[in-house]
Amino acid sequence: MASTMHGPPGILVSGLHKSYGPVEAVRGVDLRIDPGETVALLGPNGAGKSTTIDVVLGLAQPDAGQVSVFGTTPADAVSAGRTGGMLQTGSLIEGLSVRELVTMVASLYPHPLDVGQVLETTGAESFAAQRTTKLSGGQAQRARFALALVGDPDLLVLDEPTAALDVEGRHDFWGSMRDIARNGKTVVFATHYLEEADAYADRIVVMARGRVVADGPATQIKARAGGRTIRATLPYADLGALRALPGVTGADLRGEAVVLACSDSDSALWALHSAFPDAHDIEVRGAGLEDAFLELVSGDQSEVAAP
Amino acid sequence: MSHATYLRYELVRTFRNRRFLFFSLGFPLLMFLLIAGANQSKRLDGIPFPLYYMTGMVSWGAMIAIISSGTRISAERQIGWARQLRITPLSTRTYFRSKVVGGYVMALLTIAVLYVAGSMLSVHLDARQWALMTLLLLIGLVPFAVLGIMLGHLLKPDSLGPAVGGVTSLFALLGGAWGPLSTSTTFVDIVKCIPSYWLVQSGKVALGGPGWPPLQAWVVLAVWTAALAWLAVAAFRRDTARLT
Question: Does domain A11-222 have CATH number 3.40.50.300?
Fold first, then answer.
């Protein structure tokens, strides 16, 4: 991806591999995120999102590959107070009020924001005097968001920040998030929800099974992921002709079968039937995100040739 | 960037932990008041019993206080707070320093409370003796501060409670904090190799007892501190590798 930015990229990951015991969590991820971008890491559980985030935050060491944050190592970026993060798991320590805890963490950063201001931005002000042990799930999430923000980091990394929230809580959370992203911060967040990624990210990086399977502007990814796929047995198919059918956005061969990604599967099905009458064993499937990307985008050699 | 703020809130948290205050402060105090109170006029080794018993309870209570910093480390690992801190600019060094300082503040508080209780039961020492005893206690606590950090990285909170109880009791018992176990020379020669013996003796030396500082005291403390520090670093490494 060509960049018009000066200086080092916000995040540069190349050839990242990371295993935990026999589990290959990340199997060759390349990723470049420029300063000021808001990027969603979208994918199902086990896709490698959290592992990638852990490596970017310096919480995990890569088995292979390079990772830099603003041109330095993740650990140096963390020490310099340039990264802030909201991890997927973890509770708050007890014995302090929300305001005290945020003040405590703020004191660790070289140029923290005003604590009162951060509590207001994150909507934590109304319960700032409460002990951390007396918070609801949504309140705790806001407090954790305040902790991630208070150091005024250049890079904000959020690992499934809305996982514990109901629909309304999600809406509120992203409402406050939008203002923050506008201030030129680099923001990376992991999510399961396509709608979230679409609504709040400039760019979506789709991950599955430890790899990046799609990377592009939200609109493009959404168009690809939202449709259905048609699968049919059709020997010696002409992919060019298949791709030209109405309602078809992509076509791929799987041995004797073809897989069509469709924006309009109804038109595509009729067109396929008239243009290729010998197509048989036809299946139409609503493509879940994972399906859509595994079937089409990641129709790479390793999936086909997997032992 | 002020680590004073961080340390201040660490201490605030410790003082707000009532269970901890009860066991670290209340327990040795209660034992002292009950047992020394009932034997106020007796003498042991020619020393008034309350004074003798105070030095033992002070070493035991201070030992519990300082090892308990490990309890907080373990709890912070368990709930994922250690990971949250690792993505802030807080250095590992400062993290441990704050835990050790926190442990020492609690130990000093325990020491002060027992001194006051001792004075109430007619323990009289001159200022120099109080000061020397306190200084040697603080030095004698060094290996136990390191032991606390090691346990904090080795054990989960649910096994740490019993471990701290068992370890402190064993050290207190063998070191003579609850009274001399045996006067056989072989036994004394053996217990002279454990740090709690010298911790307890630090009280006795202020009484003009034989105590330390002979060279052996310093060697025993240094060797234990070095060995425990080595183990603590290994536990920390293993622990942070697993965290990831």
Answer: yes
